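Issue 218. Parser rejects a valid record. Input:
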Amino acid sequence: MRKYEKTTAPSASVGADAGQSSFTNNNDSVSDSCAERNLSDEEMEAICRRMQRMADSSYLNTMSLDELLNNVYMSKSAVVDGLLSSGVYILAGAPKIGKSFLVAQIAFYVSTGQKLWNYAVHQGTVLYLALEDDQHRLQQRISRMFGVDGTRHLHFATSAGQVGKGLDEQLENFVREHENTKLIIVDTLQKVREMVSDTYSYASDYEVIGKLKAFADKHDICVLIVHHTRKQPAGDSFEMISGTTGLLGCADGALLMQKEKRTDGCATLEVVGRDQPDQRLHLVKDQEHLLWELDHAESELWKQPPDPVLESVSKIVSPENPEWEGSPTELAAALKTDMAVNRLTKHLNVNASRLLEEHRVRYENKTRHTGRRIRLTYMAVETAEYEAIE
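Output the parser choked on:
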């Protein structure tokens, strides 16, 4: 699903309150422009002050908690619910432990929309940079895993440029040609980073992940990077990831794959991330098809309890009446709620992503000449999740 643009209620983000802006020569025209918007004196003053200071680098661009809550920010798009979202993730493990089979499995399931174990998948195009393989090995592996039923949404490459030396343009061109791209797998990190010395520093590790993260965030896709672990044990298992902590520090999440013995047919997969709960999964390998199956998870994913406000809002629109628009006061009246109007809009601002994901209702809160307007739109599954799929 393509991430929706941020929609805002009146924003009055300002810098420090003291001092004069160097942008004072446009004061009159800015004030006239603000007056035309029919806002309150306080909102006009805050907006005009911000506009005046935008060109002055000596002011820190800040916002109050009220201003933060008056904005709508859509959460990162999920690729595999509970496991992968847009951003950069690292899958690390010892060499030849089965990482490539796991990412091939993830790639196929995302490209076809099939569930991965107990996790829902959001279908989209996948690019798999299998940089340690050749096409014959890929063909043999994939056909053994999934048979010979193909999909046009899964693409492979066995060679690519390096980060900062060609790969950036290659990925940009691929995404431009495949607008529904959800996932790009880089197997392995070492193949796409420039070797500057025998060892890498925290800064260089952070930089290479940072460049891939900037690309992922720009296009709202997931970049999953396969990497190795070192042999030395560590107090925190994720400290076994080869390189410095700059890799994990910059990434949005990581998956660590381990076996007690290399000959074991089972493995553990530990999962950590910025916006997701820590997990430990126990996997068993189907030796015939080379697929990793979920044996059990050590803990169940926490699920948010139902939100009565979101459930009430979702009933205002439907496939038969797909759109509603009105003021916050009119929405409160339609919901027949005792919740204060200002509190209601802030609650919906914070939970806009949840309203979309759970109830298929897109929420927008914008300021127009006539004041603040709220729009609710019922999103069919095909539109909300698969709008760009060929």
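Fixed in the parser; the record now loads. The longest helix spans residues 202-219.
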